[in-house]
Amino acid sequence: MILAALPGIPLVFPGDDLAVLILEGVERAGLVLQDGDLLVVTQKVVSKAEGRLVNLVEVDPSPEAIRLGEETNKDPRLVEVILNESRQVLRTREGVIIVEHRLGFVCANAGVDHSNVQDEGGQQGEWVAMLPQNPDASAQRLRERLQDATGAKIGVMIIDSHGRAWRLGTVGIAIGVAGFPALLDLRGRPDLFGDPLRSTQVGLADEVAASASILMGQADEGLPVIHIRGLPYAMREGTLREILRPRELDLFR
Amino acid sequence: MILAALPGIPLVFPGDDLAVLILEGVERAGLVLQDGDLLVVTQKVVSKAEGRLVNLVEVDPSPEAIRLGEETNKDPRLVEVILNESRQVLRTREGVIIVEHRLGFVCANAGVDHSNVQDEGGQQGEWVAMLPQNPDASAQRLRERLQDATGAKIGVMIIDSHGRAWRLGTVGIAIGVAGFPALLDLRGRPDLFGDPLRSTQVGLADEVAASASILMGQADEGLPVIHIRGLPYAMREGTLREILRPRELDLFR
Fold first, then answer.
1. How large is the ipTM?
2. Last residue of a domain, one of B109, B128, B147
3. Which residues from A are below 8 Å from B232, CB to CB?
4. A222 or A102: which carries more pLDDT confidence?
Protein backbone atom coordinates (compact mmCIF):
# COMPACT_ATOMS: atom_id res chain seq x y z
CA MET A 1 0.00 0.00 0.00
CA ILE A 2 1.46 3.34 -1.04
CA LEU A 3 0.43 6.71 0.35
CA ALA A 4 1.59 9.97 -1.14
CA ALA A 5 0.69 13.56 -0.36
CA LEU A 6 -0.19 15.51 -3.49
CA PRO A 7 2.41 18.26 -3.76
CA GLY A 8 1.87 21.94 -4.33
CA ILE A 9 -1.83 22.28 -3.53
CA PRO A 10 -2.27 25.98 -2.77
CA LEU A 11 -4.20 27.52 0.09
CA VAL A 12 -7.90 27.04 -0.62
CA PHE A 13 -10.43 29.86 -0.55
CA PRO A 14 -14.23 29.96 -0.70
CA GLY A 15 -15.43 29.18 -4.21
CA ASP A 16 -12.25 27.39 -5.27
CA ASP A 17 -12.80 24.31 -7.43
CA LEU A 18 -11.26 21.59 -5.28
CA ALA A 19 -11.58 18.94 -8.01
CA VAL A 20 -9.37 21.03 -10.28
CA LEU A 21 -6.82 21.63 -7.53
CA ILE A 22 -6.72 17.88 -6.83
CA LEU A 23 -6.33 16.97 -10.51
CA GLU A 24 -3.46 19.45 -10.78
CA GLY A 25 -1.89 17.91 -7.68
CA VAL A 26 -2.27 14.41 -9.13
CA GLU A 27 -0.50 15.53 -12.29
CA ARG A 28 2.19 17.35 -10.31
CA ALA A 29 2.81 14.09 -8.41
CA GLY A 30 3.33 12.29 -11.71
CA LEU A 31 0.37 10.02 -10.95
CA VAL A 32 -2.31 8.66 -13.24
CA LEU A 33 -5.44 7.71 -11.30
CA GLN A 34 -6.34 4.02 -11.54
CA ASP A 35 -9.37 1.97 -10.59
CA GLY A 36 -9.30 1.29 -6.86
CA ASP A 37 -7.29 4.40 -5.94
CA LEU A 38 -8.48 6.43 -2.99
CA LEU A 39 -8.12 10.16 -2.44
CA VAL A 40 -8.31 11.38 1.14
CA VAL A 41 -9.03 15.07 1.66
CA THR A 42 -8.89 17.01 4.92
CA GLN A 43 -12.18 18.68 5.86
CA LYS A 44 -10.36 21.99 6.28
CA VAL A 45 -10.06 22.56 2.55
CA VAL A 46 -13.50 21.13 1.75
CA SER A 47 -15.10 23.43 4.31
CA LYS A 48 -13.23 26.43 2.97
CA ALA A 49 -13.97 25.67 -0.67
CA GLU A 50 -17.64 25.30 0.25
CA GLY A 51 -17.60 28.56 2.18
CA ARG A 52 -18.56 26.93 5.48
CA LEU A 53 -17.20 29.93 7.34
CA VAL A 54 -18.54 32.32 9.93
CA ASN A 55 -17.02 35.59 11.02
CA LEU A 56 -17.42 35.71 14.79
CA VAL A 57 -17.81 39.49 14.55
CA GLU A 58 -21.25 38.82 13.08
CA VAL A 59 -22.36 36.25 15.68
CA ASP A 60 -24.81 37.22 18.43
CA PRO A 61 -24.49 34.58 21.16
CA SER A 62 -27.61 33.20 22.84
CA PRO A 63 -27.94 33.18 26.64
CA GLU A 64 -27.15 29.43 26.54
CA ALA A 65 -23.94 30.11 24.58
CA ILE A 66 -22.95 32.86 27.01
CA ARG A 67 -23.53 30.55 29.99
CA LEU A 68 -21.59 27.66 28.39
CA GLY A 69 -18.84 30.05 27.33
CA GLU A 70 -18.38 31.16 30.93
CA GLU A 71 -18.41 27.56 32.12
CA THR A 72 -15.74 26.46 29.63
CA ASN A 73 -13.81 29.71 29.31
CA LYS A 74 -14.56 29.89 25.58
CA ASP A 75 -15.64 32.80 23.41
CA PRO A 76 -19.47 32.79 23.64
CA ARG A 77 -19.71 33.62 19.92
CA LEU A 78 -17.66 30.51 19.12
CA VAL A 79 -19.86 28.51 21.52
CA GLU A 80 -22.90 29.77 19.62
CA VAL A 81 -21.49 28.37 16.37
CA ILE A 82 -20.65 25.08 18.12
CA LEU A 83 -24.18 24.75 19.51
CA ASN A 84 -25.69 25.44 16.09
CA GLU A 85 -23.68 22.52 14.72
CA SER A 86 -24.67 20.14 17.54
CA ARG A 87 -27.56 17.99 18.59
CA GLN A 88 -26.55 17.66 22.21
CA VAL A 89 -23.80 18.70 24.63
CA LEU A 90 -22.38 15.59 26.33
CA ARG A 91 -19.51 16.87 28.49
CA THR A 92 -17.63 20.07 29.12
CA ARG A 93 -14.40 21.10 30.67
CA GLU A 94 -12.08 24.10 30.43
CA GLY A 95 -11.74 24.90 26.75
CA VAL A 96 -13.62 21.85 25.48
CA ILE A 97 -17.26 21.11 24.71
CA ILE A 98 -17.90 17.48 23.73
CA VAL A 99 -21.02 17.23 21.59
CA GLU A 100 -23.01 14.94 19.43
CA HIS A 101 -22.51 16.68 16.10
CA ARG A 102 -25.54 17.16 13.87
CA LEU A 103 -23.87 14.61 11.55
CA GLY A 104 -24.23 11.98 14.29
CA PHE A 105 -20.76 11.53 15.66
CA VAL A 106 -19.32 12.57 19.00
CA CYS A 107 -16.50 15.11 18.85
CA ALA A 108 -14.97 18.10 20.56
CA ASN A 109 -16.22 21.61 19.76
CA ALA A 110 -18.40 20.26 16.92
CA GLY A 111 -15.36 20.26 14.66
CA VAL A 112 -15.48 24.07 14.56
CA ASP A 113 -12.01 25.48 14.23
CA HIS A 114 -10.34 28.80 13.71
CA SER A 115 -9.65 29.47 10.07
CA ASN A 116 -6.82 31.27 8.38
CA VAL A 117 -9.21 32.99 6.00
CA GLN A 118 -8.44 36.69 5.79
CA ASP A 119 -10.82 39.60 5.58
CA GLU A 120 -11.10 41.50 2.34
CA GLY A 121 -8.84 44.20 3.74
CA GLY A 122 -6.12 41.56 4.16
CA GLN A 123 -6.54 41.54 7.93
CA GLN A 124 -6.94 38.19 9.60
CA GLY A 125 -10.55 38.28 10.73
CA GLU A 126 -12.23 36.23 13.40
CA TRP A 127 -13.27 33.54 11.01
CA VAL A 128 -14.08 30.00 12.07
CA ALA A 129 -14.76 27.02 9.82
CA MET A 130 -17.51 24.47 10.35
CA LEU A 131 -17.51 20.95 8.96
CA PRO A 132 -19.02 20.54 5.49
CA GLN A 133 -22.81 20.58 5.44
CA ASN A 134 -22.94 16.98 4.18
CA PRO A 135 -19.48 15.39 3.94
CA ASP A 136 -20.76 12.20 2.28
CA ALA A 137 -22.26 14.35 -0.48
CA SER A 138 -19.11 16.49 -0.71
CA ALA A 139 -17.02 13.33 -1.12
CA GLN A 140 -19.43 12.00 -3.74
CA ARG A 141 -19.33 15.25 -5.73
CA LEU A 142 -15.54 15.24 -5.73
CA ARG A 143 -15.53 11.58 -6.69
CA GLU A 144 -17.80 12.15 -9.67
CA ARG A 145 -15.75 15.09 -10.89
CA LEU A 146 -12.49 13.14 -10.58
CA GLN A 147 -13.97 10.05 -12.21
CA ASP A 148 -15.41 12.08 -15.07
CA ALA A 149 -12.06 13.73 -15.66
CA THR A 150 -9.93 10.58 -15.49
CA GLY A 151 -12.16 7.59 -16.25
CA ALA A 152 -10.81 5.79 -13.18
CA LYS A 153 -13.19 4.29 -10.63
CA ILE A 154 -11.96 5.74 -7.35
CA GLY A 155 -13.02 6.38 -3.79
CA VAL A 156 -12.94 9.72 -1.98
CA MET A 157 -12.88 10.25 1.76
CA ILE A 158 -13.09 13.46 3.79
CA ILE A 159 -11.38 13.29 7.16
CA ASP A 160 -10.92 15.31 10.31
CA SER A 161 -8.74 14.90 13.40
CA HIS A 162 -10.56 13.90 16.56
CA GLY A 163 -9.51 13.26 20.12
CA ARG A 164 -10.45 10.04 21.88
CA ALA A 165 -12.13 9.40 25.21
CA TRP A 166 -9.22 7.49 26.74
CA ARG A 167 -6.15 8.21 24.67
CA LEU A 168 -4.20 11.41 24.25
CA GLY A 169 -3.57 12.93 20.86
CA THR A 170 -5.83 13.34 17.88
CA VAL A 171 -6.14 10.79 15.10
CA GLY A 172 -7.49 11.14 11.60
CA ILE A 173 -11.08 9.95 11.35
CA ALA A 174 -13.52 9.68 8.45
CA ILE A 175 -16.36 12.21 8.27
CA GLY A 176 -17.43 11.62 4.67
CA VAL A 177 -17.13 8.60 2.42
CA ALA A 178 -17.85 7.95 -1.26
CA GLY A 179 -17.16 4.76 -3.18
CA PHE A 180 -15.45 3.11 -0.24
CA PRO A 181 -16.62 0.81 2.56
CA ALA A 182 -16.72 2.72 5.85
CA LEU A 183 -17.27 -0.45 7.83
CA LEU A 184 -15.99 -3.86 6.87
CA ASP A 185 -18.23 -6.64 8.06
CA LEU A 186 -16.34 -9.88 8.59
CA ARG A 187 -19.09 -11.58 10.55
CA GLY A 188 -19.27 -15.24 9.75
CA ARG A 189 -15.94 -15.42 7.91
CA PRO A 190 -14.12 -18.35 9.45
CA ASP A 191 -10.67 -17.99 10.97
CA LEU A 192 -7.72 -20.25 10.13
CA PHE A 193 -9.17 -23.11 12.16
CA GLY A 194 -12.70 -22.75 10.91
CA ASP A 195 -14.12 -20.89 13.90
CA PRO A 196 -16.46 -18.07 13.01
CA LEU A 197 -14.87 -14.79 13.96
CA ARG A 198 -15.98 -13.00 17.06
CA SER A 199 -14.40 -9.58 16.48
CA THR A 200 -16.27 -8.95 13.36
CA GLN A 201 -16.52 -5.39 12.20
CA VAL A 202 -13.55 -3.31 11.15
CA GLY A 203 -13.65 0.48 11.08
CA LEU A 204 -11.86 0.53 7.76
CA ALA A 205 -12.62 4.14 6.84
CA ASP A 206 -11.18 5.32 10.15
CA GLU A 207 -8.08 3.18 9.73
CA VAL A 208 -7.55 4.69 6.30
CA ALA A 209 -8.25 8.19 7.62
CA ALA A 210 -5.61 7.68 10.30
CA SER A 211 -3.08 6.46 7.76
CA ALA A 212 -3.64 9.48 5.51
CA SER A 213 -3.48 11.84 8.46
CA ILE A 214 0.11 10.74 9.14
CA LEU A 215 1.19 12.41 5.91
CA MET A 216 -0.96 15.53 6.16
CA GLY A 217 0.86 17.01 9.11
CA GLN A 218 -1.12 19.20 11.42
CA ALA A 219 0.32 22.66 11.17
CA ASP A 220 -1.35 24.03 8.08
CA GLU A 221 -3.10 23.17 4.85
CA GLY A 222 0.16 22.38 3.13
CA LEU A 223 -0.65 18.72 2.40
CA PRO A 224 -4.43 18.46 2.39
CA VAL A 225 -4.85 15.60 -0.09
CA ILE A 226 -3.38 12.10 0.14
CA HIS A 227 -3.42 9.56 -2.67
CA ILE A 228 -3.60 5.89 -1.63
CA ARG A 229 -3.00 2.94 -3.91
CA GLY A 230 -3.03 -0.75 -3.07
CA LEU A 231 -5.81 -0.99 -0.51
CA PRO A 232 -6.49 -4.70 -0.09
CA TYR A 233 -10.27 -4.32 -0.10
CA ALA A 234 -12.76 -4.03 -2.91
CA MET A 235 -14.36 -0.66 -3.41
CA ARG A 236 -18.12 -0.36 -3.05
CA GLU A 237 -20.59 2.41 -2.34
CA GLY A 238 -20.28 3.62 1.24
CA THR A 239 -21.44 6.22 3.72
CA LEU A 240 -20.28 7.58 7.04
CA ARG A 241 -23.53 6.37 8.58
CA GLU A 242 -22.24 2.78 8.50
CA ILE A 243 -19.65 3.58 11.14
CA LEU A 244 -21.70 5.64 13.61
CA ARG A 245 -22.52 3.69 16.75
CA PRO A 246 -26.27 3.67 17.35
CA ARG A 247 -27.23 5.47 20.53
CA GLU A 248 -28.68 2.30 22.04
CA LEU A 249 -25.25 0.62 21.81
CA ASP A 250 -23.50 3.57 23.43
CA LEU A 251 -22.26 2.69 26.92
CA PHE A 252 -20.48 5.97 27.54
CA ARG A 253 -22.91 8.77 26.82
CA MET B 1 4.99 6.17 2.72
CA ILE B 2 5.02 2.51 1.78
CA LEU B 3 3.45 -0.28 3.81
CA ALA B 4 4.00 -3.95 3.04
CA ALA B 5 2.94 -7.09 4.85
CA LEU B 6 5.85 -9.49 5.32
CA PRO B 7 4.92 -12.61 3.37
CA GLY B 8 5.06 -16.20 4.53
CA ILE B 9 5.29 -15.74 8.29
CA PRO B 10 4.11 -19.08 9.67
CA LEU B 11 1.71 -19.66 12.55
CA VAL B 12 3.50 -18.76 15.77
CA PHE B 13 3.72 -21.06 18.77
CA PRO B 14 4.92 -20.57 22.34
CA GLY B 15 8.68 -20.36 22.45
CA ASP B 16 9.08 -19.38 18.80
CA ASP B 17 11.74 -16.78 18.13
CA LEU B 18 9.73 -13.95 16.64
CA ALA B 19 12.82 -11.93 15.70
CA VAL B 20 14.01 -14.77 13.48
CA LEU B 21 10.59 -15.18 11.89
CA ILE B 22 10.49 -11.43 11.17
CA LEU B 23 14.00 -11.38 9.70
CA GLU B 24 13.05 -14.29 7.44
CA GLY B 25 9.93 -12.42 6.40
CA VAL B 26 11.95 -9.28 5.65
CA GLU B 27 14.27 -11.30 3.44
CA ARG B 28 11.35 -13.07 1.77
CA ALA B 29 9.89 -9.64 0.97
CA GLY B 30 13.15 -8.68 -0.72
CA LEU B 31 13.64 -5.86 1.78
CA VAL B 32 16.77 -4.61 3.46
CA LEU B 33 15.97 -2.78 6.70
CA GLN B 34 17.04 0.86 6.69
CA ASP B 35 17.34 3.53 9.38
CA GLY B 36 13.90 4.96 10.08
CA ASP B 37 11.98 1.84 9.06
CA LEU B 38 9.20 0.70 11.36
CA LEU B 39 7.97 -2.84 11.94
CA VAL B 40 4.45 -3.22 13.27
CA VAL B 41 3.56 -6.55 14.86
CA THR B 42 0.13 -7.75 15.95
CA GLN B 43 -0.09 -8.65 19.64
CA LYS B 44 -1.52 -12.04 18.72
CA VAL B 45 1.82 -13.43 17.64
CA VAL B 46 3.78 -11.67 20.40
CA SER B 47 1.46 -13.10 23.04
CA LYS B 48 1.72 -16.57 21.56
CA ALA B 49 5.49 -16.48 21.20
CA GLU B 50 5.71 -15.34 24.82
CA GLY B 51 3.35 -18.09 25.96
CA ARG B 52 0.76 -15.64 27.31
CA LEU B 53 -1.87 -18.37 27.11
CA VAL B 54 -4.32 -19.91 29.53
CA ASN B 55 -6.30 -23.08 29.05
CA LEU B 56 -9.78 -22.35 30.38
CA VAL B 57 -10.03 -25.98 31.49
CA GLU B 58 -7.58 -25.09 34.25
CA VAL B 59 -9.30 -21.89 35.40
CA ASP B 60 -11.35 -21.85 38.60
CA PRO B 61 -13.61 -18.79 38.43
CA SER B 62 -14.09 -16.60 41.50
CA PRO B 63 -17.60 -15.73 42.76
CA GLU B 64 -17.12 -12.26 41.20
CA ALA B 65 -16.28 -13.83 37.82
CA ILE B 66 -19.31 -16.13 38.07
CA ARG B 67 -21.59 -13.19 38.86
CA LEU B 68 -20.16 -11.06 36.03
CA GLY B 69 -20.32 -14.03 33.67
CA GLU B 70 -24.03 -14.41 34.34
CA GLU B 71 -24.57 -10.67 33.92
CA THR B 72 -22.80 -10.56 30.54
CA ASN B 73 -23.56 -14.08 29.31
CA LYS B 74 -19.86 -14.93 29.14
CA ASP B 75 -17.95 -18.02 30.24
CA PRO B 76 -17.08 -17.34 33.92
CA ARG B 77 -13.63 -18.88 33.41
CA LEU B 78 -12.98 -16.39 30.61
CA VAL B 79 -14.28 -13.61 32.85
CA GLU B 80 -11.83 -14.72 35.53
CA VAL B 81 -8.94 -14.28 33.10
CA ILE B 82 -10.30 -10.89 32.05
CA LEU B 83 -10.56 -9.71 35.65
CA ASN B 84 -7.02 -10.85 36.38
CA GLU B 85 -5.81 -8.65 33.54
CA SER B 86 -7.83 -5.62 34.66
CA ARG B 87 -7.65 -2.84 37.21
CA GLN B 88 -11.31 -1.92 37.07
CA VAL B 89 -14.54 -2.86 35.29
CA LEU B 90 -16.05 0.27 33.71
CA ARG B 91 -19.11 -0.96 31.81
CA THR B 92 -20.76 -4.22 30.86
CA ARG B 93 -23.31 -5.41 28.40
CA GLU B 94 -24.23 -8.71 26.77
CA GLY B 95 -20.98 -10.31 25.71
CA VAL B 96 -18.75 -7.33 26.54
CA ILE B 97 -16.86 -6.20 29.62
CA ILE B 98 -15.17 -2.81 29.23
CA VAL B 99 -12.23 -2.52 31.61
CA GLU B 100 -9.26 -0.46 32.46
CA HIS B 101 -6.53 -2.91 31.53
CA ARG B 102 -3.63 -3.35 33.94
CA LEU B 103 -1.50 -1.67 31.25
CA GLY B 104 -3.56 1.50 31.73
CA PHE B 105 -5.78 1.67 28.66
CA VAL B 106 -9.52 1.16 28.36
CA CYS B 107 -10.57 -1.76 26.20
CA ALA B 108 -13.11 -4.54 25.81
CA ASN B 109 -12.55 -7.89 27.53
CA ALA B 110 -9.04 -6.84 28.62
CA GLY B 111 -7.76 -7.80 25.18
CA VAL B 112 -8.24 -11.48 26.06
CA ASP B 113 -9.13 -13.47 22.98
CA HIS B 114 -9.65 -17.04 21.96
CA SER B 115 -6.52 -18.56 20.57
CA ASN B 116 -6.02 -21.09 17.83
CA VAL B 117 -3.36 -22.89 19.88
CA GLN B 118 -3.99 -26.62 19.83
CA ASP B 119 -3.57 -29.11 22.66
CA GLU B 120 -0.71 -31.58 22.48
CA GLY B 121 -3.11 -34.23 21.28
CA GLY B 122 -3.87 -32.04 18.27
CA GLN B 123 -7.31 -31.13 19.61
CA GLN B 124 -8.22 -27.50 19.71
CA GLY B 125 -8.27 -26.77 23.44
CA GLU B 126 -10.00 -23.98 25.24
CA TRP B 127 -7.02 -21.69 25.07
CA VAL B 128 -7.22 -17.96 25.37
CA ALA B 129 -4.43 -15.45 24.82
CA MET B 130 -3.75 -12.45 27.02
CA LEU B 131 -1.88 -9.33 25.93
CA PRO B 132 1.90 -9.43 26.41
CA GLN B 133 3.02 -8.87 30.00
CA ASN B 134 4.83 -5.65 29.04
CA PRO B 135 4.32 -4.72 25.38
CA ASP B 136 6.77 -1.79 25.50
CA ALA B 137 9.45 -4.21 26.69
CA SER B 138 8.45 -6.82 24.10
CA ALA B 139 8.75 -4.20 21.37
CA GLN B 140 12.12 -3.07 22.71
CA ARG B 141 13.45 -6.65 22.81
CA LEU B 142 12.38 -7.25 19.22
CA ARG B 143 13.86 -3.92 18.20
CA GLU B 144 17.24 -4.72 19.72
CA ARG B 145 17.33 -8.14 18.11
CA LEU B 146 16.44 -6.73 14.70
CA GLN B 147 18.89 -3.86 15.03
CA ASP B 148 21.68 -6.19 16.12
CA ALA B 149 21.00 -8.43 13.15
CA THR B 150 20.75 -5.72 10.52
CA GLY B 151 22.58 -2.64 11.80
CA ALA B 152 19.58 -0.47 10.90
CA LYS B 153 18.09 1.90 13.47
CA ILE B 154 14.41 1.00 13.42
CA GLY B 155 11.25 1.32 15.43
CA VAL B 156 8.98 -1.54 16.52
CA MET B 157 5.35 -1.29 17.51
CA ILE B 158 2.96 -3.90 18.88
CA ILE B 159 -0.68 -3.30 18.07
CA ASP B 160 -4.11 -4.66 18.85
CA SER B 161 -7.59 -3.98 17.47
CA HIS B 162 -9.91 -2.05 19.75
CA GLY B 163 -13.46 -0.85 19.52
CA ARG B 164 -14.34 2.76 20.16
CA ALA B 165 -16.91 4.36 22.44
CA TRP B 166 -18.88 6.07 19.67
CA ARG B 167 -17.90 4.46 16.41
CA LEU B 168 -18.58 0.97 15.13
CA GLY B 169 -15.80 -1.32 14.02
CA THR B 170 -12.40 -1.98 15.50
CA VAL B 171 -9.28 -0.06 14.55
CA GLY B 172 -5.64 -0.91 15.03
CA ILE B 173 -4.20 0.74 18.11
CA ALA B 174 -0.72 0.80 19.66
CA ILE B 175 -0.14 -1.22 22.84
CA GLY B 176 3.66 -1.26 22.82
CA VAL B 177 6.18 1.14 21.34
CA ALA B 178 9.97 1.11 20.98
CA GLY B 179 12.10 3.65 19.16
CA PHE B 180 9.11 5.58 17.92
CA PRO B 181 7.15 8.59 19.22
CA ALA B 182 3.77 7.46 20.56
CA LEU B 183 2.55 11.03 20.90
CA LEU B 184 3.65 13.91 18.72
CA ASP B 185 3.59 17.20 20.55
CA LEU B 186 3.09 20.11 18.22
CA ARG B 187 2.30 22.61 20.94
CA GLY B 188 3.69 26.00 20.13
CA ARG B 189 4.50 25.25 16.51
CA PRO B 190 3.01 28.13 14.56
CA ASP B 191 0.55 27.54 11.74
CA LEU B 192 0.86 29.09 8.29
CA PHE B 193 -0.25 32.48 9.57
CA GLY B 194 1.89 32.44 12.67
CA ASP B 195 -0.80 31.52 15.16
CA PRO B 196 0.27 28.98 17.74
CA LEU B 197 -1.61 25.77 17.17
CA ARG B 198 -4.52 24.86 19.38
CA SER B 199 -5.00 21.20 18.44
CA THR B 200 -1.60 20.22 19.54
CA GLN B 201 -1.01 16.58 20.24
CA VAL B 202 -1.19 13.88 17.60
CA GLY B 203 -1.69 10.22 18.49
CA LEU B 204 0.93 9.20 15.97
CA ALA B 205 1.43 5.65 17.24
CA ASP B 206 -2.29 4.98 16.95
CA GLU B 207 -2.43 6.47 13.45
CA VAL B 208 0.42 4.19 12.42
CA ALA B 209 -1.20 1.21 14.15
CA ALA B 210 -4.39 1.83 12.21
CA SER B 211 -2.51 2.07 8.93
CA ALA B 212 -0.71 -1.22 9.54
CA SER B 213 -3.93 -2.89 10.62
CA ILE B 214 -5.42 -2.27 7.16
CA LEU B 215 -2.93 -4.73 5.69
CA MET B 216 -3.06 -7.34 8.44
CA GLY B 217 -6.58 -8.42 7.74
CA GLN B 218 -8.56 -9.75 10.65
CA ALA B 219 -9.28 -13.35 9.93
CA ASP B 220 -6.11 -15.05 11.08
CA GLU B 221 -2.42 -14.64 11.76
CA GLY B 222 -1.63 -14.73 8.07
CA LEU B 223 -0.10 -11.25 7.89
CA PRO B 224 1.03 -10.42 11.41
CA VAL B 225 3.95 -8.10 10.59
CA ILE B 226 3.87 -4.91 8.51
CA HIS B 227 6.95 -3.05 7.31
CA ILE B 228 6.60 0.73 6.97
CA ARG B 229 9.06 3.00 5.20
CA GLY B 230 8.87 6.73 4.65
CA LEU B 231 7.27 7.94 7.88
CA PRO B 232 7.66 11.71 7.82
CA TYR B 233 8.68 11.95 11.48
CA ALA B 234 12.00 11.50 13.21
CA MET B 235 12.38 8.37 15.30
CA ARG B 236 13.07 8.76 19.01
CA GLU B 237 12.65 6.63 22.11
CA GLY B 238 8.99 6.19 22.96
CA THR B 239 6.56 4.40 25.23
CA LEU B 240 2.88 3.60 25.25
CA ARG B 241 2.54 5.61 28.45
CA GLU B 242 2.81 8.84 26.45
CA ILE B 243 -0.54 8.22 24.84
CA LEU B 244 -2.63 7.08 27.80
CA ARG B 245 -5.05 9.75 28.96
CA PRO B 246 -4.55 10.50 32.63
CA ARG B 247 -7.57 9.59 34.71
CA GLU B 248 -8.09 13.19 35.79
CA LEU B 249 -8.57 14.22 32.14
CA ASP B 250 -11.08 11.42 31.51
CA LEU B 251 -14.58 12.82 31.02
CA PHE B 252 -16.19 9.50 30.17
CA ARG B 253 -15.25 7.02 32.86
1. 0.93
2. B128
3. 214-215, 217
4. A102
